[in-house]
Amino acid sequence: MYATPLDLPDFEEEVVTEALVRFLEPRGLGGKAALITLDNGFDHTKPTSFGPGGLKNLWRALDQVEAEDDVKLIAVTGKPFIFLAGADIKLMPSLESREQGLALAQAGHSLYKRLKDSAVPTFAFVNGTALGGGFELALHCHYRTVSTSARGLGLPEVSIGLIPGWGGSQILPNLIGIEKAAQVIVGNPLNQNKMLSGTDLVPLGIADAEFEPADFLEESLDWAVKVATGAVTVERPEVDRDVWPQVIAGARRLVDEKVHNASAAAVRALDLLELARTATFEEGSLAEDEALADLEAGPQFQSSIYAFHLVRSLGKRPEGAPSPGLAKEIGKVGVVGAGLMAGQIALMFARRLEVPVVMTDLDEDRAQKGLAYVRAEIDKLEAKGRTSKLKAAKLRALVSATADKSVYADCDLVIEAVFEELGVKQAVFAEVESIVSDEALLVTNTSGLSITAMASGLKHPERLVGMHFFNPVAVMPLVEVIPTESTDKETLATAYAVAKKLKKTAVGSADRPAFIVNRLLGRMLAEVTGAVDAGTPVEVADVALDELGLPMRPFALLELVGLRVAWHLCQHLNEDLGPRFPASENLRKMAEAEFPVFDPEAKGKGRLTDEAKAQIALGDSPSTAAEVKQRVLRGLAEEIGLMLDEGVVPSAKQIDLAMILGAGFPFWLGGLTPYLDREGISVDVTGKPFSA
């Protein structure tokens, strides 16, 4: 049994986090305040995280505090903008056995317990990012303050195949109640790994006070002195234990609906949350130790490590991007169209670039409806505290709309978001090119049409590039960047630079039909609908991929995309790529139906209405769910092989990154191509693994 971090074996750590102790004597305390600052060797480029070395350093810092006389309060904070980003995931592959993982879990509990059980009041001054083990460190302190500017807060472990293993699953539900805790620990990680911000923590009951960033440390220390001396009393509401069973039952239904119980970590996290109702903290900690050790040694976490590093490396340094120094400055943006997608794009550009954005549409009424949508979204951001009153006013002033396209004359970038028809887009660019300056960039948001064909009639085809954003634009982190053979380096560099400023991860694609994500999703849906056409009942085909834990079942995806849009895409793919993408007659009937196709009482579960079932013509060769799954995976392997041969992307890693960020493929699959390698499908279909 590893009792303390000092018993841990040493691992090779890139940057060891220091725990720097200062002893202060603030007015009114009547003694000393110990302020411990976590800092990874003053390397401002790297988030502070804990490996064995950091755990040992904090242990020794607490020893130093305990040896000091007259300490009245202990506070822990971080370097600027970072509190603590949790355990160092880069060290996890160094764990050679389950026993070592168990030792690391126990060491964390032993260390944090010193803060929880301290006879001297302990405080966490959460000045910035606090994730996983960092968030749990704050939870172990008796009191917490948070900076209103803090971003990246939460317990994201479930998203990478783990559980909060240093006390989070036991402390949080007993602090804020089981419903909120289940959302933070399970719901948020399964919802695009949603993070909390500083202004969320006090309303949730996680933090006791919030302060502005300019004088956060001073205000936090003054507040802590008042708490330690009894001048301020912190009251917390009693947790309702009667609702525990029904909340856990509801959370289990959510995990079934979201990922079809394919996430071992989500299931295990709910077990721990259920245990927290009656277990002592020691009993809960032991259960966390065992769960963390099991999951660290399991296949889902090991696969997640690949996906995690992929997002961090390729996501920051896009493969094939020109030098950022070639990028042009963007001072004004034009958006052609004022529909839903155009409105989302306009708001995103205004929020992230903070430049004037003007939308146009066919008439003034449509243009003003689009502007009203943008302003309503800004109102929501302000009401939820996600933007300040001042910033909201600035955004309203930045976005405008009109039917007069002459407003594009001084735009540096014009992006179209109109109907997905090649002729329509060609007409748009022909008109816009006659208005804009010779230096302005032209951008298409097409989801799969030929950009080369769009450029064919332009006088300056070199300044056209594709930037395919995914819906909903504010949430989805991916943008596919698609140059043509004519696109010049300055235009391409600017597209990547703009994507970065928009806080999107850019993945490059050649100008081939449907690019990356939609081509593979199209192939997946083609195989599923093909199985239905052959005779497989919809309810069987729809659950065939459940064990992958995809965010949506196939028919729920069809419902979200819209049957007419799906049929439109199906036709294009059939025309461009041939019989691998058959034009399903059943899909056509569903798209053209004048009656409800999906049962409104079973939204998202692929249940068709009786009228829709009556229209579907099934063949006489039904498949089992397992056979449909194999059919889909083999189809995906074939398509990926063809995409690599065609040069759609330079490597399989870019396909993995695009599918994780654009289609929600879970981290625990470790990327689509490694999954197909592990299943032996890639070798069987293409003759070699994609990792070769």
UniProtKB/TrEMBL annotation:
Segments forming domain 3-hydroxyacyl-CoA dehydrogenase NAD binding: 332-508
Recorded catalytic activity of this chain's protein: a (3S)-3-hydroxyacyl-CoA + NAD(+) = a 3-oxoacyl-CoA + NADH + H(+)
Gene3D superfamilies reported for this sequence: 2-enoyl-CoA Hydratase, Chain A, domain 1 (3.90.226.10), N-(1-d-carboxylethyl)-l-norvaline Dehydrogenase, domain 2 (1.10.1040.10), NAD(P)-binding Rossmann-like Domain (3.40.50.720)
A GO molecular-function annotation: enoyl-CoA hydratase activity
Keywords: Fatty acid metabolism, Lipid degradation, Lipid metabolism, Lyase, Multifunctional enzyme, NAD, Oxidoreductase
Associated pathway: Lipid metabolism; butanoate metabolism; Lipid metabolism; fatty acid beta-oxidation
Domain 3-hydroxyacyl-CoA dehydrogenase C-terminal span(s) in chain numbering: 515-594
One Pfam assignment: ECH_1
GO biological process: fatty acid beta-oxidation
Similarity comment: Belongs to the 3-hydroxyacyl-CoA dehydrogenase family. In the central section; belongs to the 3-hydroxyacyl-CoA dehydrogenase family.
PANTHER family named in the record: TRIFUNCTIONAL ENZYME SUBUNIT ALPHA, TRIFUNCTIONAL ENZYME SUBUNIT ALPHA, MITOCHONDRIAL
Name of the featured protein: 3-hydroxyacyl-CoA dehydrogenase
Source organism (scientific name): Glycomyces albidus
Lineage: Bacteria, Bacillati, Actinomycetota, Actinomycetes, Glycomycetales
